[in-house]
UniProtKB/TrEMBL annotation:
It comes from Tahibacter harae. InterPro entries: Bact_response_regulator, CheY-like_superfamily, Sig_transdc_resp-reg_receiver. Residues 3-126 form the Response regulatory domain. CDD domains: REC_HupR-like. Keywords: Phosphoprotein. The keyword Phosphoprotein applies. The modification 4-aspartylphosphate is found at D60. This is Response regulator. SUPFAM superfamilies: CheY-like (SSF52172).
Amino acid sequence: MYRVLIVDDEPNILTALRRCLSNIPPSMLDGERLELIPANSPEDALQLAVADNYDLVLSDLRMPGINGVDLLAEVAQRQPLCARLLMSGYADLSAIIEAINQAHVFRFIPKPWDDNDLRMAVVQALHYRALLVENQRLADLVRAQQGQLERQSAELRRLEIEHPGITHLKRDETGAIFIDEDDL
């Protein structure tokens, strides 16, 4: 299940967003469903983001108190793998640039939105997040394997120092280990 935090100070917008996003079929989300959590203020959203992890945060830009860019930047600090979308009814280019640079939003969505475009933006953001999570998992796996290889190499070096030649095997033409009687 994908957890999506929706933040807007207008209750009617929250209701419309929930209605729109609840229509995303699980087949578009790798069989998963959306759990939509509404927050009607950025302060409430921050409390929720401290208490729980989210896969996606969709926020309005202009709200009383904390604006959407600052909210999403704070979410990015706390949950770097959480996808972030920003919405606004104002075509404020400097705010959009700030959102991209400061909060690393995945996409800006204008209000009023097209339902299909919004659903696709959410699906794409969640797929992008899934790639980030998988990349993180693979990087962690590679680091663990490198650590294991380094420990094995150190052990081989130690054995070679204690018993010179022990790590160098001679093989015959069939690949079998060849033991030279002179070495015994």
